[in-house]
Amino acid sequence: MEIGGLSRVEFAFPGPLRDQLVAAILSGAKTSTSGLVVEYERENEPLPKVGQQLAVVDSEDRPVAVIELTELRVLPLAAVDLRHALDEGEGYQSVAEWRAGHESFWHSAEMRAELGDPGFTVNDDTLVLAQRFRLVRAVRG
Asked: Which residues form the ASCH domain (predicted)?
């Protein structure tokens, strides 16, 4: 589904976590995000590209912002650095905190259902897509 000619991007699943992440994007606190490469592979989707603009949607599936990808790195989970963790805008103070929070999300029932694998787990070698972006504009309803 495209919004205004832009591909949409969802942060987490609809609900409190998405609301928190969208608010952090709109405030400028969140300038990076992490995804699993396996999500793209499972959906047979190409990885996003630097310079691509995306429409951020809220929990009600409404476009709320446009972001532009400024840096993309595919790296093993064990190689995620502190700068990336801090720039996620979720209050992490260390890579260990970031990893614990993300493992909890990636091991959730919702994520396992999305991946079609009830026993899905990540490890140090799991490939992560570390994305850096900038807020282009907020979208007013």
From this structure: 11-137
